[in-house]
Design brief:
By secondary structure, the protein is mainly α. The protein has eleven helices and no strands.
């Protein structure tokens, strides 16, 4: 049991170090030696968990998908808003998420499969769009597959712009503006009027999801 805990901690330390280096230097410039120095582990420990720099990068990309889960809402469009806003808050505050986004958007990361995050983003958005359509929340012309790609692609562009201009300091404001411009073209007016789009919602959603995660973990530990 103690060895398993140590292995988990070592893997976490390696991923955190890799995230730091990838975010600062990009995929191509990052080196295994820098990651080893930052993590404070041996080469053998690193290669026990990750076989290559590409494997490390994929680990960082996967690690951003934490167990933060938001509850279902009556409005599936609101769920899309909430998914976007929660990710926005995490992008501002979580080094692992920032590193994963840097890797995803790094066009010089030759040899690295950067498609996974785009697909993992599109799946929950498409699911909510299809359910929103089924319960009459969307305008008649909306094609969920097409709209999911537009939402994910637009968000990728907005976050990239925010990173370049303000290092994500204005990201919540920019994402809120994106939603205000995009949603009227796909959502029926009655649903649009009920959506909660305040900038403060990003933090509130993080608190809600974190509390739910803590409750699940506590329940599992003592259940």
């Amino acid at each position: 049991m103690a060895e398993q805990v140590r292995a988990i901690r070592t893997r976490g330390a390696i991923l955190s170090a890799a995230a730091k280096i990838f975010e600062e230097r990009g995929y191509q410039a990052a080196t295994i030696s820098e990651i080893l120095t930052t993590a404070g582990v041996t080469k053998g420990a690193l290669y026990f968990h990750f076989q290559s720099k590409e494997d490390l990068a994929q680990g960082v990309l996967s690690a951003q998908d934490q167990s933060l889960v938001l509850p279902e809402r009556p409005s599936k469009v609101q769920e899309i808003v909430d998914i976007v806003m929660l990710h926005t808050y995490r992008l501002q505050t979580d080094a692992m998420v920032r590193a994963a986004v840097r890797l995803t958007m790094d066009q010089r990361a030759h040899g690295l499969d950067r498609s996974g995050p785009f697909r993992s983003w599109a799946v929950p958005v498409l699911d909510r769009l299809e359910r929103a359509q089924a319960q009459g929340e969307l305008l008649p012309h909306v094609l969920p597959h097409e709209t999911a790609d537009v939402i994910v692609g637009s968000y990728a562009g907005i976050q990239s712009m925010s990173q370049a201009l303000t290092d994500y300091q204005d990201l919540v404001a920019r994402v809120t503006a994106l939603l205000r411009h995009l949603l009227p073209s796909i959502v029926v007016p009655s649903v649009l009027a009920s959506l909660q789009l305040a900038e403060s919602r990003a933090f509130d959603l993080f608190e809600e999801a974190s509390s739910a995660l803590y409750a699940r973990e506590t329940s599992g530990a003592f259940g």
